[in-house]
Amino acid sequence: MKINEGMSAIVTGGASGLGRATAEALAATGIRVAIFDISEEAGEAIAKNIGGVFCNVNILDEASVEAGFAKARAAHGQERILVHCAVVTGGGKTLSWDKANNCYKRTPTEQIARSADGIFTATYRIASLAALGMANADPISEDGERGCLIFTSSAASQDGQVGQVAYGGGKGAVNAMVLPMARDLMDAGIRVNAILPGIFATPPMLKVKEYNEAVFDNLGKSVPFPRRLGHPEEFASIVLELVRNSYFNGQLIRIDGGIRMPPK
Questions:
Q1: Of 2, 168, 224, 256, which one has the greatest count of Cβ atoms within 10 A?
Q2: For position 216, what pLDDT does the model report?
Q3: What keywords appear on the UniProt entry (predicted)?
Q4: Residue 263: half-sphere exposure toward Cβ, Cα within 13 Å
């Protein structure tokens, strides 16, 4: 899909981390970006800096998401690019040892369901609403393309560690959604892909560095090459290629420096 100045994009989770880098990279090409996030102060500042618009959106709430799309489209017109980076997750080990009671306990189902809602269901919610708008817009290429959807999955979806049943399972469900959704939307000319990042220098990881620099350094050393955490800008560069290259469709793309997660 040819990137044209003034084309519209929506980036969820655009107030920080991978989403912020993506919003900045898209805006640098001349694309008008709307940021969906719940971090209002940071989101407003970043949107202002890139000449975009901020929408205070809770991805768990249908009405909030619909209002975000309405605000973004009123400002920039129909988006042709949707990059979904926002996530709400929870979880824990399936069973963990309760020292006080000298027995195993399980992670409550409700805690796992929160991740299912914040990862899988939220991805469908955002993607289907974006696709609905794109499908009812005119094609923008001679192939009949109307837009593209890019999801953020995780390397944990394929080799999750201890305690990642909820997160890895949710991201695995996102992976499983990509190809059937691409097939659902093929007649509308909408492509669907997902990026599976490994360990990136996002705010949660940088907090690890604040509390324990040795642990942070070891995370970087666990990557085969380059032996460091990924830069958010490297994630964003994959987004740009997925937007530009219309032959990418129904794909899961790992960007992880060759890491394969050990059990712990």
A1: 168
A2: 77
A3: Oxidoreductase
A4: 1
